[in-house]
Amino acid sequence: MVGRVARAATTTDAFNAVAEPRRRQILDVLAAGERSVTDLVAALDLAQPQVSKHLRVLHEVGLVAVREDGRRRLYRLEGRGLKPIHDWVAGFARHWEDRFGALDAVLEELTGETDGNDHEG
Amino acid sequence: MVGRVARAATTTDAFNAVAEPRRRQILDVLAAGERSVTDLVAALDLAQPQVSKHLRVLHEVGLVAVREDGRRRLYRLEGRGLKPIHDWVAGFARHWEDRFGALDAVLEELTGETDGNDHEG
DNA sequence: CAACCATATTCCGATATGGGAATACGTCAA
DNA sequence: TTGACGTATTCCCATATCGGAATATGGTTG
User: Fold this and answer.
1) Which amino acid residue lies closest to nucleotide D15, measuring CA to C1'?
2) Which of A34, B39, B45, B88 could form a disulfide with A74 if both were Cys (CB 3.0 to 4.6 A apart)?
3) Given a cut of 90, is residue B11 above it in pLDDT?
4) Second-level CATH architecture of A14-79
């Protein structure tokens, strides 16, 4: 029962939090502005408890912030938390954008990057 | 019982595939060019079976492509698969980029966002 | 063919995840 | 205070994920 980790905890980082479709939906809704749990429940067609649970995860990972308003809790998007993902993915943009694709091809030709293993010439 | 889904399968989409740190590492390495499984094992300090397993997932999701070279399999990045993630996250960029932040603040002022019901003009 | 190298697959165990249902708060209205 | 509402937490369970070890599969070399 020591270091045995079966799977990275969902609550670990934004990458994991966002891997769950429902949570992405929640963020999509919140992108339009503050929403109460009930609002989200209605918008997502998901049971209230599950919404609260997902919000918990999103909150722990810093993707949303809460504000109390009477007996309601208004959640709002904390977009900054998505930046790590954006930054990481952006690093690969050249790999799917055509204009870069051509350039990459040339660079690989020039640097022999394609392998680093020197296979088959 | 059929519909009982405990958790979205990792093999479902790029979001899930990339939620796993190791798999991100693999993609990072592949970003530099084609690599054999052995190369990856060395680069990642991870056991060969696990690397193969992760590659399987990445392959099924379309994030990597394989090429056979004798008894080796050379994997290469299939960057395009990351585009969905990029696109989704990019939609939130305005939420963390300062220059947009200011604009958003103004818009919220104007639209009475704080009310929580009327939003996004 | 045999020994060997490269990679994939299978079996195992520990874990935690997500939905559903029930329930526990905390707040507001009468 | 009582009761209704809004939200969070807990319990249960089926599932699947990950790493580790062992093994299977397949090509290569001698």
Assistant:
1) B6
2) A34
3) no
4) Orthogonal Bundle (1.10)
